[in-house]
Amino acid sequence: MQKDRLSSSPSRFKEVRGEAMLETEEVSVMLRLKDLGWGTRRIAAELGVSRTTVKEYLRAGGWRPYEKPERRKKLDGYEAWLKERFCRHLGNADVIRQELAGEKRIVISLRTVERAVHPYRRELAAQARACVRFETPPGKQMQIDFGERGVEIGGVQVRAYLFVATLGYSRRLHVRAFRHERQENWFEGQESAFRAFGGVTEEVLFDNARALVMEHHAATREVVFNPKLKAFAKHWGFRPRACAPYRARYLRARRRTASAM
Predict the structure, then answer these.
(1) Burial 216-242 (b: 16+ CB within 10 A, else e)
(2) Which of 148, 174, 210, 247 could disulfide-link to 165, CB 3.0 to 4.6 Å?
(3) First to last CA, the chain
(4) Which residues does residue 203 pair with via DSSP β-bridges, in sequence order?
């Protein structure tokens, strides 16, 4: 009785990341041998591939293209964080890269960050187009915010925090540079603006910075100001006012102005 045997010609397959990628005709032979009662070990030895490869093709029932396994990316799971920081920094991917390294201990290239935040750029552009210039009567309101940028001082790269005050009517600007963005810097920046503008406005409008606002309910619009801010406002005679959560685009535009200086 003649023994079933294939020719001893070398097997034609490609090794892709340790997995044998067989040609379509070889898979057909594999299926015929299985129908003849051959076991996976014997088929693997005949074709010169692993039993795992044989089992995978038999389980699939025929030839299948190689599917490259998806590699987990360093930023997987950080989508919400990236989107929030992208909007906060007005699309500045380099600042996000620095914060990833400082806060998350994730060191990656600027190009990688830019690819990750690319889906959010259209949304940010739409928000900018929807922004309507907001003006108030003379002496009514001053808007304040902080921006930041890297600068070189004495050959050393440092991060400067720029306090920006804008008069609601004239759009006149006052900018002060600080080494930090602390509560005392907010107060010192406002005092400097009052002196530069020659007076105090009826109200001061700001974003929901932690140094100034303890809590701001998005639904009820109830604001809990920091006690030191309330005392500071009472001393100077102005009314503090916080922007609606996530709606302070015109204040963030001041941050872009400060960063460009």
Answers:
(1) beeeeeebebbeebeebbeeeebebeb
(2) 174
(3) 92
(4) 141, 239
Tens digits of per-residue pLDDT, 74-127?
Answer: 788 888 888 888 888 878 888 899 999 888 888 999 989 998 888 888 777 666
This prediction has a pTM of 0.46
Is 255 found in the same domain as 145? yes
Range of the domain at 228: 141-260
What does the alpha-carbon distance between residue 258 and residue 113 come to, in Å, rounded to a whole number? 23
With respect to residue 136, please indicate whether it lies within any of the assigned structural domains: no
* b (16+ CB within 10 A) / e for 179-192: eebebebbbebbee
Q: Which two tokens stand for residue 178?
A: 């600080």
Instruction: List, for residues 41-83, the tens digit of each pLDDT value.
Output: 888 888 888 888 888 888 877 665 555 556 667 788 888 888 8
3-state secondary structure string, 100-122?
HHHHCCCCCCHHHHHHHHHHHHH
Closest by CA to 102, choosing from 150, 64, 54, is: 150
Looking at residue 15, the DSSP 8-state letter turns out to be: E
Q: In 154-201, where do the E strands start and end?
A: 156-167, 173-178
User: 40-76 in b/e burial notation, b at 16+ Cβ within 10 A?
Assistant: beebbebbebeeebbeebbeeeebeeeeeeeeeeebe
The CB density around residue 22, as the number of other CB atoms within 10 Å, is 23
